[in-house]
Structures are given as structure tokens and as C-alpha cells.
Amino acid sequence: MAVHSSEEMLSEKGFKRRMGRRLLKITLWALAGLTACAVLMVLYLHQKDYADDFRKRKGALAETTLEGAGSRQGMKKYWLTLRNNEGFTVHCGMLVPVRKGKQYPAIILMGGKATGKYAVDYALDVDDCIIVAPDYPYEPKASYTVGEFLADVPAMRQALLDMVPSVMLLTDYLFRRSDVDTTKVVLLGYSFGAPLVPAIIAGDRRAAAAAMVYGGGDLTSLIRHNVRRYESNTIAELVAQLSSLLLRPLEPLRYADLISPTPLIMINGTHDEQIPRANAELFYNAAREPKKITWLESRHVNPRDVELPKRIIDTLKKELGRVGILKTYH
After folding, report:
1. Alpha carbon of 14 to those of 4, 11, 19, 23, 268: distances in Å?
2. Which of 36, 66, 192, 235 is deepest in the core (most CB within 10 A)?
3. Residue 246 or 279, more confident
4. For range 127-131, the mean pLDDT
5. What are the pLDDT digits (tens) for 36-75?
6. How far is CA 305 from CA 16, 187, 209, 300, 309, in A?
7. Is residue 243 a contact partner of residue 160, using CB atoms and an 8 Å limit?
8. What DSSP line would sit under 105-141, residue for residue?
9. 147/329 Cα distance (integer angstroms)
10. What pLDDT score was predicted for residue 282?
11. CA distances from 214 to 8, 244, 281, 312 (A)
């Protein structure tokens, strides 16, 4: 049996201590490097101007396909597909008045996360304008576990960012149509689509009016509020911080003061369980004139609530008449 001298044992212990200190230093330096990278990434996402990226992604309109999908209430329905010169594709639903020989206002409609291009089916009692609803490139699940949500964040982020160049490409298409009054194009987002309006307007000034229906500002608190309805405070905070960081290019408050001089129309619910009044007022107060907010006694907009969409549409008609887009205001 080998016998180790005290000097050898002390030497071995000293070696282990030195190695332990070295590993600790390496670990601390690695953590410092990761922290520095995280801080730099946060600063980059907060400061980066995405306008050029959005314009490059939009490209040039190269191909248009229209497929008839029936008619109702004096309107023809179509499925519209747009492709740019690099293959970027946008699918839309579209309603066009049957009556020919005149130019119509056009409304670009971004609806709830579950409606997409089918949002045109909820455009009730509207027959004096062209309505186009771009589809969302991401198909949301009915519900998520935290793991599923985090795994889908990159795809969700890219799909949401792609909505900006999608609407810009769609605007190119509308400006080529002979039946569109290009001085009366409206960008309208409700619910899930409302927060997208400011980023689009800030990068493309062609819309004559911007409308946000049941939307607000500060994605961090909005996401936290909605996740907290179903998950713990810790999970809600984690999801809110991560999502708001990745979706920084779309933060409505980032563009609130850039909407002007385009008129801003906001419609919100007094008892909205998804968009707190504080978030709606925060965005409205950050925006510049001309602007107007209308409060309806309601909860959050829901396609199953057939009465609320009628009240919203009546209010929209009134407000679009007030700013000279429609002729139905009295």
C-alpha cells in the first residue's frame, strides 16, 4: 500500500485549491461575458431602427392573385394573394363593392389573433368601401404551456414583425387599383391587431387615418396582465419581460408621437379585461394631435358578441366621417 508524505498531501491540497480558484475565475468571467452579451442585446434591440429592415422585407410587388369567394350585402368577397420580388407572400381576405365606376375608401383591417384574413366576415353593414384583411403568418394555438409558449416565441416574433412589411406591400397593391381613392386609405387594427398600427404608420405615411380598437401601449404590462390571468406572478413576469424585449420593434409607445399628423382614432371598452384602461390612456396621452378616444361600455371585443361589433362599426363610421374618410357622418 502506497504511503503519502505530509508534503505530498499538502501539495495535492494546494493544487486542488488553485484549480478551484481557477475554475471559479473562469466561471465568473463566463457569467460576466454572458451578462455583458445580454446587456448589449437589450441595448441593441432597444436602439435599433427597423425601418430599413421592414422596407427591405416588403420588396417590390411582383405577383397578384384574386380568387372569388362569394358575395353578400352588395359586396364581392375575394381571397387575395400578394408576392414580392423575393417570394415574400401575403394572404388576405377582401371585400369590394359590387357597384362599379367610382373610387372607394379602403380599410386595411388587422383583426384578432384567431381571425386574420377572415376578419372581413365581421365587417357588418359596410358597403361603401373596400376592406382588406391580411392573414397572420403564424397560426396560434388555443392554449399554451409555458414551455410551448417559449418554444414558439421566435416564430411568433417573426410573424408579428412580418405584419409591418405585409401591410406595406398590401398598401402598394391598393394604390395600384383604379377603384381605390388613395387619399382615403385607413389602417385599422383591433384587439390583437391594434398594437401593430403605430409601427406601420410610422414607417409608411400613406394612410389617411389610423384606428386602434381595443388596444393600448406598453407591451410589458399588457403581456404581464394577460398571462397573470392564467399563470403565477413569476411566470407572468418572465413571459412579459422576454416577450416585450423580443417585440421591442413593435412597442406602440415607441411610435406614439410619430403617428401625427395622421389622425388617430381610438375606441376602447370601459370594462376591458384584456386591455386595462391605464394602457389605453397611456398610449393616447403619448400620441399627439389630431386624436380622439371613444369609450364604450363593454368588455373586450369578441366575435361571439354580435351587438358589440355593431356598436364599434357605428362608432368607426362616425369617426371616419368626422375626419373626412366616409360620408356617413352627420
Report:
1. 15, 5, 9, 14, 69
2. 192
3. 279
4. 91
5. 554 455 555 555 668 899 999 999 999 999 999 999 888 9
6. 70, 23, 26, 10, 7
7. no
8. EEEEEE--TTTGGGGGGG-TT--SSEEEEEPPSS---
9. 49
10. 98
11. 75, 19, 11, 10
Residue 329 has a pLDDT of 42
Per the DSSP assignment, residues forming a β-bridge with 95 are: 77, 131
Mean pLDDT of 260-285: 97
Query: At 76, phi and psi to the nearest 5?
Result: -95, 140
Unique residue bearing C-alpha cell 388613395: 182
DSSP one-letter string for 154-165: HHHHHHHHHHHH
Q: Report phi then psi at 50, rounded to 5.
A: -95, 0
Domain ranges of the chain: 1-47, 53-322
pLDDT band at 3 (very low <50, low <70, confident <90, very high): low
Mean pLDDT of 190-204: 94
167-to-58, 120, 253, 266 alpha-carbon distances in Å: 9, 15, 20, 20
Q: Grid coordinates standing for 295?
A: 369609450
Percent above pLDDT 90 for the chain:
60
Backbone angles phi, psi at 203, to 5 degrees: -100, -10
Question: Does residue 324 contact residue 293 with C-beta atoms inside 8 Å?
Answer: no
Dist. CA 204–CA 224, nearest whole Å: 30
Alpha helical stretches, state H, the chain: 6-47, 51-58, 146-176, 197-203, 219-228, 233-246, 252-255, 277-286, 307-322
Rounded to whole angstroms, the Cα distance separating 248 from 258 reads 16
Q: Could you give the angle at the alpha carbon of 28 between the alpha carbons of 25 and 32, nearest 5°?
A: 135
Residue 249: which of 68, 49, 86 has the closest Cα? 49
Domain 53-322 belongs in CATH node 3.40.50.1820: yes
Cα separations in angstroms, 313 against 45, 123, 125, 188: 37, 8, 8, 12
